């Protein structure tokens, strides 16, 4: 121990304490990162642990959705009425047809409905 001085012993103890602090800080940071990753992963796997609860939840959501669709269908059925035919105004930019359609008389669109699709002269009777 002739070559070592008190300063060497003090500096080596400081290095040991710094390395211990670094290990502790690294373990705390890695622990926080791990907990953060777990919190991010939890919402994606809520139903994976309890299959019975998940099945009950989806059954309830499906029945509520089907009930809502049924109520909306009933509402449409009860409030549906024939709409008045709109007056046809012959604007020059509407129904520009440089040539007739290749089917039928050439004046009707492919899926023509005489009650809802007007021709250039108006609705068909």
List the helices and strands and how they pair.
Blueprint (H helix, E strand, L loop, with lengths): L5 H36 L9 H29 L46
Could you characterize the architecture of this molecule?
Belongs to the cytochrome c oxidase subunit 6A family. One of its GO terms (cellular component) is mitochondrial inner membrane. This is Cytochrome c oxidase subunit 6A1, mitochondrial. GO terms for molecular function: enzyme regulator activity. It is built from 2 helices and no strands. The protein has 125 residues and is mainly α. The chain starts with 5 loop residues before the first helix and ends in a 46-residue tail after the last helix.
List keywords for this structure.
125 residues; mainly alpha; Cytochrome C Oxidase, Chain G; 3 domains; 2 helices; elongated
**Assembly state (oligomeric):** single chain
The span between the termini is: 118 Å
Number of domains: 3
Shape: elongated
Unreliable residue stretches: none
Strand portion, in percent?
Answer: under 5%
Compact summary:
By secondary structure, this protein is mostly helical. It has helices spanning 6-41, 51-79.
